[in-house]
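Homework help board

Subject: predicted structure for assignment chain

Our instructor gave us this sequence and asked us to write out the predicted structure in token form, then describe one feature. I got the tokens but I'm not sure how to describe them. Can anyone check?
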Amino acid sequence: MEARYKRKNTCGTICLKYLLFLFNVLFWVAGGTVLAVGIWTVAEKSDYISLLNSTFYSASAYILIATGIIVVVTGLIGCCATLREMRNLLIVYFILLFCIFLLEIIAGVMAYMNHQKLDHELRQNLRLTMQHKYKQPGEEGVTQAVDKLQQEFKCCGSNSSLDWADSIWILTTQNAMMVPDSCCKTPREFCGQRDHPSNIYKLEGGCIGRLEEFILSQLHILGAVGIGIAFLQLLGMMLTCCLYQNLKEDRYSACCF
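My token output:
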């Protein structure tokens, strides 16, 4: 039906089209950024996921990737709907924006509610994970994660290097190891036989403090990205409604005249 009428776009409609197109470009870039952050989190920091009993952190990273893909696709739909002045597609675009907005609110509430729980679980389980799973058969992922954690954050043990005294690996090893070699400031084979502060990291609070800071910083990134996109979406929904109404009025004018 719309094709039967020659549209006479008003100045307001033309301005709205370009504003909404600009918004979609920004929205598309934001989606690409979200996708990149999610992929970076999984690719670079996924080793630490094996140290957490909770799946909240890993789920957050994959939700970030899924959100980025949806935002990119939604932005492309918005560009097509805007440039071709397709009112039906504008409705689809508005619904997608609204759904993403609701998902971000739900994700934000879940992040706030689960943060304290995640912190508590981390403090309770990290030491036991290190002591019972490090260099044990079938726990290669945990071993790699612990070594990477201690080297990257320059720490030793969950709360302190003394935690390693009760490790199954230390108690069963035959080479008088005091701590893993990854605790050493200059890692080399069997350097963990000497736990003097000049040789190993003696960070106050151990690795758990640094891991908590890292997880909190990641959650802050999630929150900041979510808030930024949410504001963009509110603007996009308002522009979409305005453009839809203007196109409807232009069509009515073309029909009457």
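Reply (TA_rk): Your tokens look well-formed. For the description, you could write something like this. The chain has one domain: 2-256. That's the kind of observation they're looking for.
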